[in-house]
Design a protein that fits this description.
- The structure holds 6 protein chains of 6 kinds.
- By secondary structure, chain B is mainly alpha-helical.
- Helices cover about 60% and strands about 0% of the residues of chain B.
- Chain B is built from 4 helices and no strands.
- In chain B, helix 1 packs antiparallel against helix 2 and helix 2 runs antiparallel to helix 3.
- The longest helix of chain B is centred in the middle third of the chain and has 32 residues.
- Chain D is mainly alpha-helical.
- Chain D is elongated.
- A 3-stranded antiparallel sheet of chain E has the order 1-3-2, covered by helices on one side.
- In chain E, helix 3 packs antiparallel against helix 5 and helix 4 crosses helix 5.
- The mean pLDDT of chain E is about 85.
- Classes of the chains: A mainly alpha, B mainly alpha, C mainly alpha, D mainly alpha, E mainly alpha, F mainly alpha.
- Chains in contact: A-B, A-D, A-F, B-C, B-F, C-F, D-E, D-F, E-F.
- Chains B and F meet through helix 1, helix 2, helix 3 and helix 4 of B and helix 6, helix 22, helix 23, helix 24 and helix 25 of F.
- Strand 1 of chain D pairs parallel with strand 1 of chain E, so a sheet runs across the interface.
- The structure holds sodium ion (2 copies).
- One sodium ion (NA) binds next to loops of chain F.
- One sodium ion binds next to loops of chain C.
């Protein structure tokens, strides 16, 4: 299992860094929001994997919340963003 | 307890970034500075507590738990920051409504006195002779 | 009798909650607020008596044994502060109700004002009663956030500008305070003040100095110690008169309270004493010169406020019994007098239609009562005998002289100079606003019509505070006994620590 | 390491890979709309796989039910977010029109 | 279906969620769930969601199967597309006019379509029931038409799963 | 004695009423207070009375009163002349004079203070009365304060004498600490030696000299002549200006031997006498002439007492008495002339002698005493003075004597000039003057006659004054007061003085002009202007009025102070670890990158998203650290923040204004980095220094046994540190209130805080964005999952005690559910979702939480004490109820209320204002 967890960690870290690049580079606010969504999803995956690895379910409520959050944030921005560039 | 350098660095960066924004005139930036500073302080408090598993009896043995007390402090701080953020936003909006921007203005009275100082004058209000001389 | 201890916090909080649910019934809100604060005053007095008779009262919240949970500690010092602040807040509440009744509360919604005001009170009492460093922080947050609401209530342009300065500076101080708390816990592993007193002693001096200074920095901003004080005169004067009054009277003193606690209980001795003395001197002189430069009564008073913070720092920095005792006495005096003066200025604003000196005049002739209401506390502030201001100052000077040493003598001189300059500043106000011929059309109109009627409640509460201020002279003896004992306990530390340790069993 | 564990590991790694694909797409794709595809879509499947992996590890109802809820929430909300952002992107011209072979919105209501 | 029925459905649904959250079935959980659900429904009144259809398990299963199939397939395709070197892919915005123009159907179809990778709902023209979909990796009309048919198929499966009889008839007619 | 002071005080309080009731005649009644004092004092001639009451023993300031000979002398003068001047004032002021009530009150209050001053036996008590006389004189001098000159003169007198007073106070403190007591009679009994005594003496004399207008403080007295003449007669002739001389006289016997005492007093005294005497000779205003005369005489008194020998002391006492009598008489005379003729200018006055013979007679009696003609008291005193210095045994005595002789000559000269100027006929001028009411004339009359009488009764009077004089160390033959000592040196000097004075008057037109070497008032003015300038410059420099400046100063203090400590004494730990899990580094990189990018961002929303991103990063740090509750809350808060910010930013410009970004950028960055380094350093040091085991080590077992929960953090929040949490939710409540206050602002608008239902029928449309803004998909989905999310929030609330969650997380989730509803359908949808007043929810939540704590007290426990109920119920199984859950429910409600309030104000109300703004 440890090997798996390491592998997943590495993969997710790479993905996260890629997403971070997009979040910082933009150019548009929407790109950043999408990137943030992806990061959240990556966090979910990471936390879930960690939970599966340690067989410790305490983090699951966090995952439920996260699965709602990305939606709220994106909708919030998408609803009101003014892309006057 | 040996300090965790990663935390130390994060604290430093968050404080630095927070201060730079805090010193701005735009209230929105000030707000973000405050948020960054708050996060920085939270990490600082976190660094002051032991690292370990979730402090939930039954899932983690007592002696492997992370220190719950700093967590309680941080949680309190987080929520207070939320309230303050809302208030600052309202403040920014109000000032935008009033003066069409959310920039912090200088104090008028102070500027008056600074000008007096530059003109080498005394306090503005002289005790002028205002009697119908009797 | 420990049941009394939590009440000064719990009562106003419940009151605030109730007023929030009474949005539609302003009269009921007023009654609830009055009842709550009157109750707090009663409890505070009772508590002071109990403390003086039975000694320090300690409550372990939730019956969690010390040092696990939070302890509330009412020693003579905090009990005294509770009584004074309760009296002042009650008077100011009455005053503001009077003003609200007169102005019509359209611009200052009761459903905003009353809950915020009550929460502010709860914050102050929390800070005074707290025996736990983080809880002290929470107390500060409560009163600060409430003060943010009160200072910007109405949302006019200058209130927003001033409020922004106030809020942001306070936020920074809160961040520093929390940083200090975090560092203290990181180093000592506890938040209980009594336990910290022991654990901090064991730490290396350099570290103690560091922690001490972080906290001093945070409190120094709140107490308006030069050079951390410039925000105050820019922010306080723009608020509603009663708000300014209670801020000027109380909030800076909460900062001072914290400084006294920390300096005596957690970090006694050390280089911070001399640091405090130097800052005291600067605060006195820079502050009072600032007052002389002003042309608006409210701002002028704000500067005298800053300046006289220096007096109290002086006593703390001396760290001898008479010094600390006089500092505490001066805190009591200053809370009362500074509040009174701002309330009077509120009356002046209503009556003369301005607070700018170039637009005021002839008030003494127009309203002799107003004249007396200003003159007496003004002389008191200037340290004219036999008023309490003089007694406090005298105590500080004696303490400084007995301590000896160049720095302390410099402070004695500075204190005397400051009181002379204070006299100069208030005499200027008196000459211009009260003595010379009326200059504003408003005041001339007032002269012909005998001036706008001043609401009874406003005048009444102001009179009450003026009388309280004068009464301090009469009870100075017993009061000095009290502050003397309080100071002795503070400097000894053991009484506090032992009282808290006593609660160590469940 | 039981068979279930093997299956779980497979799911977890596959899920992670989908995340990586999302990250790559996010950096490579030319405009917001196409990045949206890369970002939101493989994520859903990736997430489902990860959850499945967890379920295979935990093997008790208490946690599995929670995992199910997470999946349901994700499936319901993800498209909405995508839709809202995509819509704004299109309306505010954040997309590269030159990559569009057909645009029936423009045809329908030319602006 | 009356508002009361809606409420009952909601109550049961919420109770189920409650039990799922706790993860164990016990009478205490059941009663607690009912209680909490009731409180929630009282505190936050149920908004009108008009639902005229009925559940058809078999059709539902079929829908789920095809949905899962599309999901996996397309996900792999898009992932591959993302990693494939070369020029950025072309795409198209295609309007799909649904046959059953109800809020619920529009929404569910839109969800199903946009969950499946490569397709993303940009606009919904509610008046005529048209979904405008941004489709990735489309380079000509033929592919566009293929996608339009796919989308309509998705709608059909949904309607067959939960639509009302006349809706099912409507969809069936247009297919033949 | 305290009673008598009290009598004056009471009289002062009732005086205005009396005046309103009786008109100016009320002054007769008011005069009773000093009169009573006079009688009391006369009844105690030749005995020493003491009283003592404790006041503030801790400061050594008690109400110690003592009346020995000197005190008695001044008490009699102060009380007697006070009564007479009050009676005199009845006719001086026209009926219905404005501010007469205040005049009466302050005057009698002053008399009381003056009496207190002369009988005070405690140095601090003496200072108390001393300052009171200063303040009352401030009020009396500016009887007509609408005239700037009067205000100016009053303030000048106030500040100058207070300055001296404060110096004196410092002197008292030093003296008292040297002596170990502040009670004068005790200090007198065994005087301290050495130490800072010299400093004390100088400081005390500063006070005395300034009060008595001795050079270089002389200038304030002539300006103070702006006061009404009765005031001048009392304060500036008889009473207040005597306070300084009194102090010198009182302390002389004890401190006279100390080095600075004698030379200082002799020099300043003689100098003052000569300068002022000369100036008096040049005045045309009778009152000013008297004023300078007074200054001159005060100089004389100071010099004589300064001689600090037994005979000098005796002479001083006699002169003091004489001067009080004749000078107040003359002032009263001038007052009458002023009122009856309307002028005080001796060039205008002519022939008054014939029209007002009685007045002239009185003036001549007083003048004779002033000039030192036998058998008047003035003569007796001057003789004694001459003798004291003629037969003195100290160096410089003869020089002083010379000074006194010259000074006395000047006195004779200006006396003659005064009488001539007031009453003589001058060619071509006649001043009309109505006859003077006898009940007015009588008062100066009494004083003048008294001057003659005491002179005649010099022997017996001298007998009692000896008791004071004997306090001085005896040296040589004891002198005794008498009108006739035979042909002695002093007599010769007196004759010389009279002749020379006459000559000086005769040749007055040929005198060279010499003024004072410098004009004190001008110096005073320059000092004050300088002070004002300094104030403005300093304030302009420190009070910049700019928020960034203030923050910068604070942060600089932080960097300087704590940076210094870190470099200096701070103990740096020798071991540290890079990380706990390598993943922390990955996350840290994310946080750092996002934070830096946020600082560089030029668009508001961009910056906010990046800040939020770094926040998410911190949340992940929390997970890794083993703090799921924190992570949960942090994620929720960051998301809520982003939404709130978006709600506000939709109205603000998208980009930050360039100007504010450029200005002083480098400085900001430098300071920021410095602060960051210091913060990091402090963390490193503090954490590294920890050795003690944290108090929280036993939390886990206590959490279960006493708190009844497995989730330690939650137990800490709702139980162990519930007191904090209670405060925290009140912060939330008040913050929400503040948001509403800033957005709605007015009472009437606040009604909308309850929410406004949308237009009946049809789906609620977007405000602002218009119908095209709404998305059917979003609306339907939110409606579908809303209740599920709310239910989940409740689950978090209840499960929180044993698993991550709790009231905060629950409340935030519910709040986000509401947020989504608002986002989907705007104001109306929000109202449909939660038709309730946000304020209500907040209040209810606070009541529930605080109420839980109070109930615990009512149940006999401590505040917020928790009870654990374990019951086995049929069917349902075991019930495990921890009462702290109710506390947590309150928390939940407050958080929901906060979010609802934010949506109502930052959301709906801003929508409305946007529409209103168009
Ligand atoms: Na210290
Ligand atoms: Na509890």
């Amino acid at each position: 299992m440890t090997a798996v967890s390491i592998a997943v960690t590495v993969i997710l870290s790479a993905a996260a860094l890629l997403a971070l690049v997009r979040a910082v580079r933009g150019p548009s606010i929407l790109d950043r929001v999408v990137a943030t969504d992806v990061l959240l999803a990556i966090i979910v995956a990471g936390v879930a994997t960690e939970a599966a690895y340690t067989l410790d379910a305490t983090a699951l409520p966090v995952l439920v919340v996260l699965s709602i959050l990305g939606f709220t944030g994106s909708v919030g921005v998408a609803r009101f963003v003014r892309t006057d560039r | 307890m040996s300090p965790n350098l990663t935390y130390v660095v994060v604290v430093g960066v968050l404080f630095a970034a927070g201060v730079i924004l805090l010193l701005e005139r735009t209230l929105t930036r000030v707000l973000m500075g405050v948020v960054l500073l708050a996060n920085g302080v939270n990490v600082l408090i976190l660094a002051g507590g032991r690292y370990g598993g979730p402090p939930i009896v039954g899932t983690t043995p007592d002696d492997e738990m992370s220190d719950p007390l700093p967590q309680a402090m941080i949680l309190t701080a987080i929520v207070i920051t939320l309230g303050l953020t809302a208030f600052l936003l309202a403040l920014a909006y109000r000032s935008w409504r009033l003066v069409g921007q959310d920039e912090v203005q200088d104090d008028i009275e102070d500027r008056r006195i600074i000008e007096l100082a530059e003109r080498d004058e005394g306090p503005e209000v002289e005790d002028v002779d205002d009697e119908g001389t009797s | 009798m420990t049941a009394l201890v939590p009440l000064p916090v719990v009562i106003p909080l419940l009151g605030a909650a109730v007023t929030l649910t009474l949005t539609r019934f302003p009269q009921a809100q007023r009654l609830v607020s009055l009842a709550a604060l009157s109750a707090v005053l009663g409890v505070a007095i009772a508590l002071l008596v109990v403390v003086c008779v039975d000694g320090t009262q300690v409550v372990a919240v939730g019956a969690w044994p010390v040092p696990i949970g939070i302890v509330l500690v009412a020693d003579q010092f905090s009990a005294l502060m509770l009584v004074v602040s309760a009296a002042v807040t009650l008077c100011v509440l009455v005053y503001s109700i009077g003003q609200g009744l007169a102005d019509g509360s359209e611009d200052t919604p009761l459903s905003i004002y009353h809950p915020s005001y009550l929460v502010l009170t709860a914050g102050v009492t929390t800070a005074f009663l707290s025996g736990d460093l983080f809880n002290l922080y929470v107390g500060f947050e409560i009163l600060l956030v409430a003060s943010y609401v009160l200072i910007t209530v109405g949302g006019t342009e200058d209130r927003i500008r001033a409020g922004t300065t106030y809020v942001v500076v306070s936020l920074l101080s809160s961040v520093l305070f929390l940083t200090g708390v975090g560092l203290v816990y990181a180093a000592a592993g506890t938040l209980n003040l009594a336990q910290l007193a022991g654990r901090l002693d064991a730490l290396p001096d350099g570290l103690r100095l560091m922690l001490n200074c972080v906290l001093l920095l945070a409190f120094g901003i709140k107490a308006a110690v030069f050079p951390l004080s410039a925000w105050l005169p820019d922010s306080y004067p723009t608020a509603l008169a009663p708000v300014t009054a209670v801020f000027a009277g109380l909030l800076t003193k909460v900062g001072l309270y914290a400084i006294i606690r920390v300096e005596t209980l957690l970090f006694p001795g050390g280089p911070t004493r001399d640091l405090l003395l130097v800052l005291a001197l600067l605060t006195m002189l820079v502050g009072i010169l600032g007052a002389i430069a002003q042309s608006d009564v409210k701002r002028l008073l704000s500067f005298t406020l800053v300046s006289h913070i220096g007096y109290m720092l002086f006593g703390i920095g001396l760290a001898n019994e008479l010094g600390v005792s006089s500092a505490i006495f001066y805190v009591v005096h200053h809370i009362t007098i500074q509040t009174t003066l701002f309330l009077v200025v509120g009356l002046v604003e209503r009556y003369g239609g301005a607070t700018a000196l170039d637009r005021l005049g002839g008030l003494a002739a127009l309203s002799p009562l107003l004249g007396v209401l200003f003159f007496v506390p003004a002389m008191n502030l200037a340290g004219i005998p036999p008023f309490s201001g003089f007694l406090g100052k005298l105590g500080l000077i004696e303490a400084g002289a007995s301590a000896g040493g160049g720095l302390r003598w410099a402070l004695v001189a500075g204190a005397l100079a400051t009181s002379l300059l204070t006299l100069y500043a208030v005499a200027r106000v008196w000459n211009l606003a009260f003595w010379r011929k009326p200059v504003t059309t408003r005041a001339e109109a007032a002269q012909t019509e005998g001036g706008p009627a001043l609401p009874r409640l406003m005048v009444g509460s102001t009179i009450a505070l003026v009388v309280l201020g004068v009464a301090l002279t009469g009870i100075a003896g017993p009061l000095f006994d009290l502050t003397g004992d309080a100071a002795a306990d503070l400097l000894e530390r053991a009484p506090y620590v032992d009282a808290v340790r006593g609660e160590g069993i469940r | 390491m039981s068979a279930l564990d093997v299956a779980a590991s497979a799911c977890l790694i596959a899920g992670a890979l989908f995340s990586l694909a999302a990250g790559i797409g996010l950096t490579r794709f030319p405009d917001v709309l196409s990045r949206m595809h890369a970002a939101t879509k493989p994520q859903v499947l990736g997430l489902l796989l990860v959850l499945l992996g967890c379920a295979l590890r935990f093997r008790n109802t208490v946690d599995i039910t929670t995992l199910v809820l997470i999946g349901v929430f994700a499936l319901t909300t993800a498209p909405v977010a995508a839709h809202m952002i995509g819509r704004v992107a299109y309306r505010s011209g954040e997309h590269r029109a030159d990559l569009l072979v057909i645009d029936e919105i423009a045809d329908h209501e030319p602006r | 279906m009356t508002r009361r029925d809606n409420t009952i459905v909601a109550l049961l649904g919420l109770t189920l969620v409650w039990i799922l959250l706790w993860g164990t079935f016990s009478w205490a959980n059941l009663l607690g769930g009912l209680g909490v659900a009731a409180v929630v429904l009282i505190a936050f009144p149920l908004p009108p969601v008009e639902f005229g259809g009925r559940l058809r398990p078999v059709a539902l299963a079929r829908f789920v199967y095809w949905f899962a199939y599309d999901l996996v397939l397309a996900s792999v395709q898009v992932a591959a597309l993302a990693c494939r070197p070369g020029d950025p892919p072309h795409s198209a915005i295609i309007g799909v006019r649904l046959r059953v123009n109800t809020d619920l159907n529009l929404t569910l179809t839109a969800e199903a379509i946009s969950l499946v990778p490569g397709s993303l709902i940009l606009e919904v023209d509610r008046s005529v029931g048209v979904l405008y979909v941004h489709v990735l990796d489309v380079s000509d009309r033929a592919q566009a038409e293929r996608f339009r048919r796919h989308a309509l198929a998705v709608e059909r499966r949904i309607v067959e799963a939960i639509g009302s009889p006349d809706e099912v008839r409507l969809v069936g007619q247009s297919e033949r | 004695m305290l009673v008598l002071v009290g009598v004056h005080a009471v009289m002062a309080v009732v005086a205005p009423g009396l005046v309103r009731w009786l008109g100016r005649r009320a002054l007769y009644v008011v005069a009773l207070a000093p009169l009573a004092t006079l009688c009391w004092a006369l009844a105690r001639t030749n005995d020493t009375v003491t009283e003592s009451y404790t006041w503030v023993a801790q400061l050594g300031i008690d109400l110690d009163l003592r009346m020995a000979t000197l005190n008695w002398l001044l008490a009699v003068l102060v009380a007697g002349i006070g009564a007479i001047v009050l009676a005199y004032s009845v006719r001086y002021f026209p009926e219905g004079q404005q501010g007469l009530g205040r005049y009466a009150a302050v005057f009698v209050a002053f008399a009381g203070a003056m009496f207190g001053l002369v009988v005070a036996d405690n140095l601090f008590l003496l200072y108390v009365f001393w300052e009171l006389t200063t303040v009352f004189s401030y009020l009396l001098i500016a009887q007509d304060p609408t005239r700037r000159a009067n205000r100016w003169a009053a303030t000048q007198a106030l500040l100058v004498t207070t300055l001296g007073g404060l110096a004196m106070l410092a002197g008292f403190v030093i003296l008292g600490q040297a002596a170990g007591t502040y009670r004068w009679s005790e200090i007198e009994a065994n005087p301290p030696r050495g130490g800072h005594l010299a400093a004390a003496v100088v400081l005390i004399l500063l006070g005395a000299l300034s009060k008595s207008a001795i050079f270089p403080f002389s200038f304030w007295l002539p300006s103070a002549m702006a006061a009404p003449t009765p005031v001048s007669a009392y304060l500036h002739a008889a009473a207040m200006v005597k306070a300084g001389v009194f102090l010198v006289a009182l302390l002389g016997p004890t401190l006279g031997a100390d080095p600075p005492w004698r030379p200082l007093l002799l020099a300043t005294g003689v100098l003052t006498m000569l300068l002022a005497g000369w100036t008096a000779l040049r005045q045309h205003d009778l009152k000013l002439m008297l004023a300078y005369g007074t200054v001159s005489q005060l100089g004389l008194l100071t010099a004589v007492f300064g001689g600090s020998s037994r005979n000098a002391g005796l002479a001083g006492a006699a002169m003091l008495l004489a001067h009080a009598l004749f000078k107040s008489t003359l002032f009263l005379v001038v007052g009458i002339i002023d009122v009856t003729t309307g002028t005080r200018d001796l060039r205008e006055l002519s022939g008054l002698g014939r029209r007002q013979p009685a007045l002239a007679a009185i003036a001549i009696l007083a003048g004779a005493s002033m000039a030192g003609l036998p058998p008047f008291m003035g003569f007796v005193g001057k003789e004694a003075a001459f003798d004291a210095f003629l037969h003195g045994h100290r160096t410089g005595d003869l020089a002083v004597l010379a000074g006194l002789v010259i000074g006395s000559t000047l006195t004779v000269a200006y006396t003659l000039r005064f009488l001539w100027g007031a009453f003589a006929d001058k060619e071509g001028k006649t001043t009309t003057a109505p006859p003077i009411a006898p009940d007015w004339l009588v008062w100066p009359g009494i004083l003048a006659v008294a001057g003659l009488a005491v002179g005649a009764a010099a022997k017996p009077l001298g007998g009692s004054l000896d008791r004071y004089a004997d306090l001085f160390p005896a040296e040589g033959a004891a002198y005794h007061l008498a009108v006739w000592h035979g042909f002695t040196g002093p007599l010769g000097l007196s004759v010389l003085v009279l002749v020379a004075g006459g000559a000086l008057f005769y040749y007055r037109h040929r005198l060279p002009r010499l003024g004072l070497p410098f004009d004190g008032s001008a110096v005073y003015q320059r000092v004050m202007n300088g002070l004002d300038r300094l104030a403005v410059e300093l304030t302009g420099a420190t009070q910049r009025g700019s928020l960034p400046f203030y923050l910068g100063v604070i942060l600089l203090a932080l960097v300087a102070g704590l940076g210094g400590i870190l470099i200096g004494p701070a103990p740096w730990p020798d071991d540290a670890r890079a990380w706990d899990t390598s993943l922390q580094v990955v996350v840290a990189v994310g946080i750092v990158v996002a934070a830096v990018a946020a600082v560089r961002a030029l668009r508001r929303l961009t910056a906010m998203v990046l800040v939020g991103l770094s926040g998410y990063g911190v949340a992940v740090l929390f997970i890794l650290h083993g703090a799921p509750d924190l992570a949960l809350t942090q994620f929720l808060v960051e998301t809520a923040t982003i939404v709130m910010v978006v709600l506000v930013l939709r109205r603000l410009p998208a980009k930050f204004s360039e100007r504010t970004i450029r200005t002083s950028r480098l400085g900001r960055i430098a300071l920021g980095i410095a602060v960051g380094v210091v913060a990091a350093g402090m963390t490193f040091v503090a954490v590294g220094a920890r050795e003690a085991t944290p108090v929280s080590a036993i939390f886990p077992e206590l959490a279960v046994s006493f708190g009844g929960g497995d989730n330690v953090v939650n137990v800490v929040l709702v139980d162990i540190r519930a007191w904090d949490t209670m405060g925290e939710i009140s912060v939330l409540v008040v913050a929400a209130t503040g948001v509403a206050s800033l957005i709605f602002r007015r009472t009437e608008a606040l009604q909308r805080r309850r929410g406004v239902p949308g237009p009946a029928g049809g789906p609620p449309g977007w405000l602002g964005a218009g119908p095209s803004g709404q998305s059917i998909i979003l609306q339907v989905v939110t409606r579908l999952i809303f209740h599920a999310i709310v239910l989940f929030s409740v689950f978090l609330l209840f499960s929180g005690h044993n698993a991550p969650g709790g009231g905060f997380a629950g409340g935030l989730v519910a709040g986000l559910a509401l947020t989504v509803r608002y986002l989907a359908g705007g104001q109306a949808e929000l109202t449909a979702a939660a038709p309730i007043d946000a304020g209500m929810v907040l209040g209810a939540g606070l009541i529930v939480s605080v109420g839980t704590g109070v109930l615990a007290m009512l149940a006999g426990g401590q505040v917020l004490q928790t009870a654990i109920v374990d019951k086995h119920l049929p069917v349902l199984g075991d019930l495990h109820l921890v009462t702290s859950i109710f506390f947590d429910i309150g928390v939940y409600l407050v958080v929901v209320g906060l979010m609802l309030d934010i949506l109502r104000s930052l959301g709906a109300e801003i929508d409305r204002q946007e529409v209103a703004a168009g």
